Amino acid sequence: MPDDAPIATHLQELRRGTVVLACLLALERPNYGYALLDELASSGFAVEANTLYPLLRRLERQGLLVSEWSTKESRPRRFYRTSEAGAELAVVLGRDWARLDAALATLRGAPGKHVPKRQGTRGT
Length: 124
What we know:
Number of strands: 3
Strand content: 5-15%
Order of helices and strands: HEHHEEH
Radius of gyration: 17 Å
Helix content: 55-70%
Strand order of the largest sheet: 1-3-2
Distance between the termini: 35 Å
Largest sheet: 3 strands, antiparallel
């Protein structure tokens, strides 16, 4: 088998873009970091804590997530949820993901697949 390092690098690049959408969708229901790690992993998105926590803080700074501390349990936890702007972005990203999936299916030769043009572009 060829060297696995380039494969791992490309897989990481592919996943890096999808984890934002995965978080925005998963956090439509408020959740805290560790539980989100479990939810993402059980959904097929293996994300490491040292990747997730900085991402959550960045998405919050960008106004795509909101958070609040909960002290209802034995130790305080920061719960995140998708903001209105984050929900709007999730719709846009989800549409583009579907368009890209259809384009890949077409390239693979899947019958009956139509690739919708991206809105607001000139076919690029």
